[in-house]
Amino acid sequence: MKKTKADPKGVLTGAHYLDGDHALAEGALAAGCRFFAGYPITPSTETAERFAERIPMVGGVFIQMEDELASIAALIGAAWGGKKVMTVTSGPGFSLMMENIGLACMLETPLVIANVQRGGPSTGLPTLTGQQDMMQVKWGSHGDYAIIALSPDSPQECFDLCVEAFNLSEIYRVPTFVMTDECVGHMHEKVVIPPAEEIELVERKWYTGPKDKYLPFKPDTDMIPFMVKVGDGYRFHITGLTHDERGYPVINAECQNVCVPHLVDKINLNADKIIKIEEDETDNAEVIVISYGITSRVTTRAVRKARKAGIKVGTIRLITVWPFPEKRIKELAKKIKAFVVPEINYGQMVYEVERSAFGQAPVIHVPHCGGWVHDPEDIFKAIKEASK
Amino acid sequence: MTEIRFSGFGGQGIIRCGLIAGKALSLFDNKQATMTQSFGPEARGSACSSQLVVSDDRVLYPYISAPEILVSMSQEAYEKYEPELRDDGLLLIDKDLVKAKPPRGKIKSYSIPSTRFAEELGNRIIANLVMLGFFTAVTRVVSPEAMKKALPGLVPGRFLELNIKAFDKGYEYGKKILADEKKPKPTKQKVKK
Predict the structure, then answer these.
(1) Contacts of residue B19 in chain A, CB cutoff 8 Å?
(2) Cβ atoms of A297 and A317 closer than 8 Å
(3) Residue B26 touches partner A, C-beta closer than 8 Å
(4) For chain A, what is the domain count?
(5) Would A82 be classed as within a structural domain?
(6) Which residues in chain A are contacts of B32 at CB distance < 8 A?
(7) Segment A155-175, tens digit of pLDDT
(8) Which ipTM was obtained for this model?
(9) CATH 3.40.920.10 for domain B2-182
(10) pLDDT digits (tens, 9 = 90+) for A262-290
């Protein structure tokens, strides 16, 4: 893994007052993204707009595609052409991307997708918030595969985690998702963009051997295969069919049993390196609230009130949502009375907490079906209930 | 923590008011300001609003629930948002565009002919800047220096000077109103019999 510094051309160093959508675009540019293909959809359009406006100054390509299927297809092509690539979407657009997200996983293609979540299902609430695609991002395409998903709680983190998402997608050759939401996407706050030399990036692992010896899917010692740029003269084949190291289709169980476990294992076996969570006062906690994105900020208000009321409550904020930090949850489950999981959906990440708690601690869900953030009072009540 | 709502009709620069004040507070006044805007079927001409939550520490809950300060530049917006203003809040209106009811509770109300002033300065489009100057003087939530520093990038470069002029006009008007308030009211002279 070769580390590099950001290209100053793409880095808008300084303090800005930005919304989350715009911060995503700046994060992408700072990370070296030079190709964006997308289809506008509320509440994510501002990211595409900003990228389109800024990319001529930086040097790169913005294409408005005919739909979301084509957007991912274009990303896959451009990534194999050697670019760092990104798209942004929401709601129905995310559903339309699912098939080609599976293709990107199968082809082990690094790309970044930001989902500015809105209330669903279907067209749902175009202009209002939701956290209802948290399971879809993990399971939405057919077959077995693994992805990485991050969840920012502010415009500042939209920038920071977008850079991080590009690094992770390059390290693991995997689609990486920034799962934000309408509230953070449309919220303006101070965003500090550091100087280019302080932004650490990861360079794609390029193959430099003989042109006729390149194997696009042969795992290196770190499990991750090398890449080349299409057009540089390497002869190779890629397909969505189950394939061998050469990328040639091999339609049998033996090859499937090598190809698919690799896709899942390269993420799961590296989970400890990938996962980032933020813990607060979990050591002596009786109750632990687990939340992510905007909900974690609202949670803090409820937690402060609970602490004032004498309840020993800790928090875990999931910065990485997938892979899920199951080890840590399992560990904590043995020591506490209960978990509380507020999220803006009718039950998604709560099932991961339940699974990881392994029956050692009850899990209280605080659902919200979207359109607004939680009333902190509802979370407070759940904490109180959990402390009994 | 202070909750503020700017309101008016689409096209008046209401969202811009929130952006300018939010940027001024966050970047130049050392505060944390979270700005959200109403995203609905708002089109040019219908009620529209932007909201600011201002705090010394991190803003946890991004939306406003009962604002201390309401700025209204249209009748429709005033009627829609006045009921949520706190009983001891501050109400700022464009006096030519909003016919306010007698203030309830301990609400303090201030008015300025912001659109008329803007027209006098040459363009009604800068009425929002007149209002922002007035807002800055009357509420003292944000410093005038920070507000002016926030303008580049948020108003077109060639109109920067005009926008600053509009801001100053509103600011001076607001200062004057506050100064007049402090002056002792003339007592009625007793008529000598």
Answers:
(1) 17, 188
(2) no
(3) yes
(4) 2
(5) yes
(6) 189-190
(7) 999 999 999 999 999 999 999
(8) 0.93
(9) yes
(10) 999 999 999 999 999 999 999 999 999 99
